[in-house]
């Protein structure tokens, strides 16, 4: 799940090399789940106009983003975690130390779903790519996008994506 800092920073480090990423070195190893983060409302409106509401934790700091959903044993239905970058960038995630399978929803700078990676593999260190620049990543319980019929092109709305949430 979390590389903490995602591809945009790697461009600075790797001189624009594609496929790379960087991970910050934590002062101490991450060995447990972080406490619940402040949450915000988020809605995905599908192409038929149906609205799907969620309550998502907002991972804002580099450390919160690095830890993400590591070590958590479950993610309740209609909940998840939202990662927002200052600008759209190629993004890579992973599932290291993440025990539950997720749907990763990559959101572009127009707040549309750019890509979806369904049912990620728990504990995998394989790279999950955004396949192009995105401004945010939404992690939901595995199977959510399929069950609700959420697809690329659907609109995502939240005060967090409008920049109104501090």
Molecular structure report:
The N terminus is likely disordered. Strands 5-4-6-3-2-1-7 form a seven-stranded mixed sheet. The chain is built from four helices and seven strands; from the N terminus they run αββαββββαβα. A hairpin with a 5-residue loop joins strand 1 and strand 2.
Class from helix and strand fractions? mainly beta
Separation of termini? 24 Å
| Major beta sheet summary | 7 strands, mixed
Strand order of the largest sheet: 5-4-6-3-2-1-7
Strand content: 35-45%
> Roughly how much helix do the residues carry, as a percent range?
10-25%
Order of helices and strands: HEEHEEEEHEH
Mean pLDDT: 84
The overall strand count is 7
Gyration radius from CA atoms, angstroms:
15 Å
Number of helices: 4
Which segments are poorly predicted (pLDDT under 50) over 5 or more consecutive residues?
A: 1-24
Q: What general outline do the C-alpha atoms trace? A: globular
Short descriptors:
single chain, 166 residues, mainly beta, seven-stranded mixed β-sheet, 36% strand, globular, disordered N terminus
Q: Can you describe this structure in just a few lines?
A:
This protein has helices spanning 7-14, 62-67, 144-148, 159-162, and strands spanning 39-45, 51-59, 79-93, 102-107, 113-117, 128-141, 155-157.
List the SSEs and their pairings.
Layout: H1 7-14, E1 39-45, E2 51-59, H2 62-67, E3 79-93, E4 102-107, E5 113-117, E6 128-141, H3 144-148, E7 155-157, H4 159-162
